[in-house]
Amino acid sequence: VISEFDLIRRCFQRPTRHTVLGIGDDGALIAPSAGQQLVVSTDLLVEGTHFFPDADPESLGWKTLAVNLSDLAAMGALPRWATLATALPAAAPDWLDAFARGFFACADHFGIDLIGGDTTRGPHGAMSFCVTIFGEVAPGAALRRNGARVDDSIWVSGMPGRAAQGLAHLRGEIKLAEPQRSDCLVALHRPQPRVELGLALRGLATSAIDVSDGLLADLGHILEQSHVSANVSIPGLPPPGLARDALLNGGDDYELVFTTPAERDAEVAALGVKLQLPLTRIGKISPPPSGSRAGSLRLCDDSGSPIASIRRGYDHFDPHGTTPSSTT
Ligand code: ADP
Ligand code: MG
Q1: Residue 326 — very low, low, confident or very high, per pLDDT cuts 50/70/90?
Q2: Per-chain residues with Cβ under 5 A from ion ligand 2
Q3: Atom 19 of ligand 1 has which residue's CA nearest to it?
Q4: Of 175, 212, 219, 319, which is most buried by a Cβ count within 10 Å?
Q5: How far does residue 107's CA lie from ligand 2's centre (Å)?
Q6: Distance of alpha carbon 256 from alpha carbon 193, whole angstroms
Q7: Per-residue model confidence (pLDDT) at position 308
């Protein structure tokens, strides 16, 4: 058997790039860049809730960090450091090696130093992974949920809905054929956090959020915190059915939804070309109808007819929720 300390050294201790003191002491030392604010975010992934017990460890390692990076992207922050706390039913070095391979592939790609964590035996047989991530942003430059203004354009990056379709495929609810199958499974297992987009949106977007619980649900958070409403019409919205539901309510793609002043639409379009990332304008911020609460969202089809009965997102404490979904 391998000791806890050997396990940490073998799997998680790597040379750092921009850290004063990393793994190995009672605490890490970091030196934030002068004048920058720290952005801090935490996500917990629990077996059975966020991933299947037989999940591929390397993909899971990638995703564990990627979902945290997505939160920094949505804040417009530059990712810098992370800690990783994990509860494991038993020391399984080979499994953890593969997990670490995926985790560090993501860390290296986005320039993150792993600077500490905790490793403990979990009593109930289920694994969990909790990352806290630290990024930097200039004072006042962070993208927040509360800045959307009436007449702003609403945008979404990428092609959300693929991860939810990948999950439905794995559950046997639908049968995807190639090449769509691979496409959706990659979206589910190896989400690409939109860090570059988030950084480019500083000074351009008035609000932003990452889509972890579903496009409409997460846009709803912007509307509530900004005290506005929205008219949404998604170009090429699929007909009623799973593809439409996945697009509107599927979580887990980790795309960004954001708002920009309408006069800057051309800049956003140019940014999409530059980043080689589809950026789709899906609507416009409107004033809350008098007497009604802020946050109301009117969804229309391409011809402008309202679409009724929108289910909104995933809620961990909704008794009708299904597991495992993978929303954080
Ligand atoms: P302590 O007993 O002081 O909490 P630990 O023995 O738990 O220290 O951890 C030893 C070192 O290893 C610390 O620097 C800690 O941050 C790091 N560490 C422990 N587990 C992990 C992990 N899963 N990932 C990264 N670093 C870890
Ligand atoms: Mg400890």
Answers
A1: very low
A2: 118
A3: 118
A4: 219
A5: 22
A6: 9
A7: 72
Residue 23's nearest CA partner among 91, 126, 76, 100 is: 100
Q: Which residues contact 120 (CB under 8 A, 6 or more apart)?
A: 85, 86, 87, 88
pLDDT in tens, 136-153: 999 999 999 999 999 999
Atom of ligand 1 at shortest range from CA of 85: 23
pLDDT at 312: 58
Phi/psi region, residue 291 (left: phi>0; alpha: psi -120 to 50; beta: rest), is left
Identify the pLDDT of residue 318. Answer: 55
- Whole-angstrom distance, CA of residue 190 vs CA of residue 205: 26
Instruction: Give the other-Cβ count within 10 Å of 25's Cβ.
Output: 9
Is the separation of the CB atoms in 237 and 302 below 8 Å? yes
Strands (E), the chain: 37-46, 78-88, 113-121, 128-137, 153-157, 207-210, 229-233, 256-260, 279-286, 297-300
pLDDT at position 259 over 90: yes
Q: What is the pTM of this model?
A: 0.92
Bridge partners of 229? 286
> 65 or 295: which carries more pLDDT confidence?
65
Strand, coil or helix: 245:
helix
Helix residue spans in 41-161 (DSSP H): 57-75, 93-110
Instruction: Look up residue 100 and give its two tokens.
Output: 């670490």
201: nearest Cα among 246, 135, 157: 157
Report the chain's terminal Cα–Cα distance, integer Å.
33
Q: Give me ligand 1 centre to Cα 119, in Å.
A: 7
DSSP string, 282-309: EEEEEPPPTTSPTT-EEEE-TTS-B---
